[in-house]
Give the backbone structure.
Amino acid sequence: MELALSTGDPEELLSYVQFGGEGMGLYFLDVDLKHPRLDGLDLAQKIREYDPRGFIVFITTHAELSYLTFTYKVEAMDYIIKDDFDKVRNRIFDCMKSVEERVGRERKEVGKFFTMKTDEKVIHELYDDILFLSTLKTKARRIILHAQDRQIEFYGTIKGLADSLDERFYKTHRAYIVNTDKIESVNYVGGVITMVNQEECLLSSRESKKFRAFIQKRREDMD
C-alpha cells in the first residue's frame, strides 16, 4: 500500500478519484474540512459515486457527529476520534491492514469480477450478479448494466464490451449482451430472450443459429 495523495483541498481529491484513481482506495477524511461547499460527509458521498467499493475512514474531533455517517449512507469503515495520538495511530494501522487483506482476497478472485474504469467511475461487479447489458436509446454511446438489484449507466459500446466479459456472456444483438447463465427462456422464432428477472432482450436473426449452438455447447460443458 502506498500514499497516492495528501491534500487539504476536497476538490483536488475528487479530481484524483474521478480521473486518476484505480478504485478500492482507502480515504482518510476529517468531518470539518473548512471548505465553503463541502464538508467531510459531502465529500464521502461524492467519493462513493466514483469509487463505490472504496474504504472511507473519518478522523476527527467531532465525536458527536458520528451518527451522520449512517444518515449520509457513506458506509464508513471507521470513525476515529482524535483524542490520543497512539490510539489514533494504531486505529489507522488497523484500517490499513484490514484493507490490504480484503483487497488481497478480491485480487485472488479477480476472474470473478467485471472491472471497468471510465471517466465517471470505477465499475466492479461480480459476473454472477450481471444479467445483461444494453444500449441506452436516449443517449449515444451509453450502456446500462442490469445487475440483480440495480442498474449502472456508463459510457461505452456493446461492441467494445463484447470481448472484455467472460465466456458466459454472448452478444445477441447490436444492442444487447446477455449472461447466458441468467436466461429463463428463448423464443428463437420471435427473437426474444427472457431473463430470470422477466426482462426481455433481443436476439437478431443473424445470431440466432450461432446462439442456439453456443447455448447447447455451454450446457454440455456444464454437465
Residues 168 and 218 are 8 Å apart (CA to CA). Residues 85-108 form the longest helix (24 residues).
